[in-house]
């Protein structure tokens, strides 16, 4: 379905981002990866699906590096058709104890980076009258949790940014949407599970159950593959008129 298209996925060397890259590659897209994880392993996984794959190590807190990454993608592949803004970090603390540098980093990487990638990618998409911008927000773009003030602020900002840019491009062939996952068993979340298990002297499975029971009524983790299949749908012709949506995939979290 995406033969001849090029996708840039930020934060894509593991977890949700790698799942997105793999799903888009399966549909025939060329992919540029970005991130600080196992770069060669991620490239090999995507390349095994038959398309072209590249990597750019832009630091997503630095606007000049972000712009250089977009330009490198366009130069290497000729176009940038699908932009998946996935890069993100987390820190948990009460607001009065929240380190200022952590706040600044979370806002820069989780929110501002999407502005910088989007502003650079949009002119080419609009010139070709086709493009997809998919912002990986979070259920925390729709509701809040305590001790996650920077993350919640950034993710709410991503949802608002998605709506605004979608309206600006509503009469074009470029759509902008957000995906809002609940708990997904990524390496980052597994660390939280491990810490809960150690702190409570309980099994890893019980720690997972407790984590899910607090927020996610299905008591099931969403998988990166499930999120990636939604992304593929949002890149399809069936989604041509889906614009400015914040699509929660959260096992009923926001329905409560």
Q: How would you describe this protein?
A:
The chain is an alpha/beta fold. The chain has two domains: 6-182 and 222-247, 3-Layer(aba) Sandwich (Rossmann fold), CATH 3.40.50.720; 185-221. Helices cover 48% and strands 13% of the residues. It has eight helices and seven strands. It has helices at residues 15-26, 39-47, 63-77, 100-128, 149-168, 187-200, 204-215, 224-234; strands at 6-9, 30-33, 53-55, 82-85, 131-136, 174-181, 246-249. The chain has a seven-stranded parallel β-sheet, with helices on both faces. β2, α2 (39-47) and β3 (53-55) form a beta-alpha-beta unit. α3 (63-77) runs parallel beside α4. It is globular, with a radius of gyration of 18 Å. The termini are far apart.
Q: What brief labels describe this structure?
A:
Rossmann fold, 8 helices, seven-stranded parallel β-sheet, Sc_DH/Rdtase_CS, alpha/beta, 13% strand, 256 residues
């Amino acid at each position: 379905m995406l033969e001849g298209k090029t996708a840039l996925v930020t934060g894509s060397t593991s977890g949700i981002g790698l799942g997105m890259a793999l799903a888009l590659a399966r549909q025939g897209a060329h992919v540029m990866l970005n991130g600080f994880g196992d770069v060669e392993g991620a490239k090999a996984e995507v390349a095994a699906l038959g398309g072209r794959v590249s990597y750019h190590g832009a630091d997503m807190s630095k606007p000049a590096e972000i712009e250089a990454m977009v330009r490198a993608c366009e130069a290497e592949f000729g176009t940038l058709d699908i932009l998946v803004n996935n890069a993100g970090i987390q820190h948990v603390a009460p607001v009065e104890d929240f380190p200022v540098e952590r706040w600044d980093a979370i806002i820069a990487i989780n929110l501002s980076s999407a502005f910088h990638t989007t502003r650079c990618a949009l002119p080419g998409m609009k010139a070709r009258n086709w493009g997809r911008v998919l912002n990986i927000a979070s259920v925390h773009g729709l509701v809040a949790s305590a001790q996650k003030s920077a993350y919640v602020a950034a993710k709410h900002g991503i949802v608002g940014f998605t709506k605004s840019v979608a309206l600006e491009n509503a009469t074009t062939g470029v759509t902008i949407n957000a995906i809002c996952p609940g708990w997904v068993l990524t390496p980052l979340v597994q660390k939280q599970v491990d810490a809960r298990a150690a702190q409570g002297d309980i099994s890893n499975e019980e720690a997972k159950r407790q984590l899910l029971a607090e927020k996610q009524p299905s008591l099931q983790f969403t998988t990166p593959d499930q999120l990636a299949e939604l992304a593929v749908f949002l890149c399809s012709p069936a989604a041509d008129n889906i614009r400015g949506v914040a699509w929660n995939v959260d096992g009923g979290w926001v329905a409560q």
